[in-house]
Design goal:
This protein has 454 residues and is α/β, with parallel strands linked by helices. The protein is built from 20 helices and 16 strands. Helices cover 46% and strands 17% of the residues. Strands 1, 2, 3, 4, 7, 8, 9, 12, 13, 14, 15 and 16 form a 12-stranded mixed sheet that branches. A two-stranded antiparallel ribbon has the order 5-6. The radius of gyration is 22 Å and the shape is globular.
């Protein structure tokens, strides 16, 4: 085993020892294979982070898959956040995967981000999709070419298609349509316009509470919106150093702090969506995955616009991909591929997108009459499709998972006036660079597709 593999495995083992929530290890596959499916059925595990209505939609897809494949049972498990605990279910999913890798009990299939995939490749933990190329019932060249180009690129590492895109989304600007109509405004196109409109739209309501121009969450994604539309990056991958500790990065952090304290037109909180849907903010930036929730719950008509830009028209992607894990019998691996193929098929990705707000991962799905008819009757979803060709994938490096948390913390520190934007940015850069240096010293590779290659 090489140095980088030993390093990641050591980290995995430490995490496994620190986290006590291992109750699910007692679940035996033999027991899971009994009952309706028959004793000869193949059971595969599928770990994901879908919650609420999206979990219901996913479970319905899995039920249909089992009906079409009666010899396969999918044991799906959504990671759950503890009550009254702030956080991200994806963090819980990532830790769970690492814990189980340490114990040689990985799932058959799981949702993964691109930066997770890099570390999983380094320890030979996943079966690349390319291994199913031209196999009976496998993926074909036409299938690969049908993937939306940016999603194909995001799932390709060292020219090898390794994972498959699934619940992909892109950041857009949501707005309270009646509030904009009343003010006679069209949706803002630049960050300056967003600030100016937010100032004018902030007002005291009859009950004495304030309706803010914008609500936002002080995190790495909020920081990234401004950063990448000014043609900057989070990380200089060539030199393995952060790229945000510069004049643009400082203006970025200062922009959000000024919205709160200088212009008094923004509300900063961890669940900005709640503020928006209550009508206490006019603007809110999040991914297209919120569209279905707003359609079901919004008490007012809402609109969707492209996220503000500046010198560069780029938008951040959200969402994960599907990985198939090693250390399983051949029957289970083949069943896992059938599941991944099903979930990323033209028909399923079309229906998944229509029902959730996620983006179709196949060009043929976007071009299909069914999806085009849906767009015509649901114009809010058109902006996500329009932004697709301008999408940007976040850094493909194992260190990115921790760097995200570092920037989250410093964004909050600046927005809460615990420190200044200058000190917050410097602190984030120093911690991130130290992490990148250690990552490089331990031999991690980025497995990025060289520029210009697909």
């Amino acid at each position: 085993m090489n140095k980088k593999s030993k390093y990641l495995l050591a980290s995995i083992i430490i995490i496994a020892l620190l986290v006590p929530a291992l109750w699910y290890f007692s679940m035996g596959r033999a027991n899971a294979q009994q009952g309706y499916y028959g004793s000869g059925a193949v059971t595969i595990t599928f770990w994901h982070a879908m919650q609420g209505t999206k979990e219901n939609q996913l479970n319905e897809l899995l039920r249909k898959f089992e009906m079409e494949n009666p010899g396969i049972r999918v044991q799906a498990e959504s990671v759950k956040m503890k009550p009254n605990v702030q956080g991200n279910p994806y963090h819980v999913l990532y830790n769970k995967i690492l814990e189980n890798l340490a114990l040689r009990r990985p799932p058959n299939v799981a949702m993964v981000f691109e930066n997770w995939t890099v570390g999983l490749i380094d320890v030979n933990a996943i079966v690349p999709v390319k291994e199913f190329l031209n196999q009976p019932g496998g993926i074909t060249t036409d299938d690969i070419n049908d993937l939306v180009p940016i999603f194909k690129e995001a799932n390709t590492f060292n020219d090898v298609l390794t994972t498959m895109p699934f619940n992909k989304s892109i950041y857009v600007l949501f707005y309270n349509q009646p509030a904009l109509d009343e003010a006679g405004f069209a949706p803002p196109k630049t960050w300056e316009e967003l600030r100016d409109m937010s100032v004018k739209l902030t007002k005291t309501k009859p009950d004495g509470t304030i309706r803010y121009g914008i609500a936002f969450e002080p995190n790495v994604d909020t920081f990234g919106h401004y950063l990448i539309t000014h043609d900057e990056n989070f990380i200089d991958m060539k030199n393995n150093r952060v790229a945000f500790n510069n004049e643009v990065g400082l203006k970025d952090m200062q922009y959000w702090v000024d919205l709160i304290y200088k212009y008094k037109c923004a509300k900063m909180e961890q669940e900005a969506f709640d503020t928006f849907i209550k009508g206490d903010a006019v603007f809110y930036i999040y991914t297209t995955s919120r569209i279905s929730t707003l359609e079901a719950k919004s008490p007012f008509p809402f609109g969707v616009a492209l996220s503000p830009i500046d010198s560069s028209r780029k938008y951040q992607f959200g969402g994960t991909n599907l990985a198939i894990f090693r250390d399983h019998p051949t029957q289970e691996t083949q069943a896992s591929w059938k599941l991944v193929k099903y979930l990323t098929s033209k028909e399923v990705t079309t229906n998944w997108s229509i029902n959730t707000g996620y983006l179709p991962v196949r060009k043929s799905a976007i071009e299909s009459p069914k999806y085009q008819n849906f767009l015509n009757s649901h114009p809010a979803n058109k902006k996500g499709i329009e932004a697709l060709k301008y999408g940007k994938v976040q850094p493909k490096t194992p260190a990115w998972e921790t760097i995200r948390g570092i920037v989250d913390d410093e964004m909050y520190n600046a927005a809460a006036k615990i420190t200044t934007p200058e000190k917050a940015l410097q602190s984030a850069a120093e911690k991130a660079n130290l992490l990148l240096t250690k990552s490089l010293a331990n031999g991690y590779e980025d497995h990025q597709t060289p520029p210009g290659k697909k």
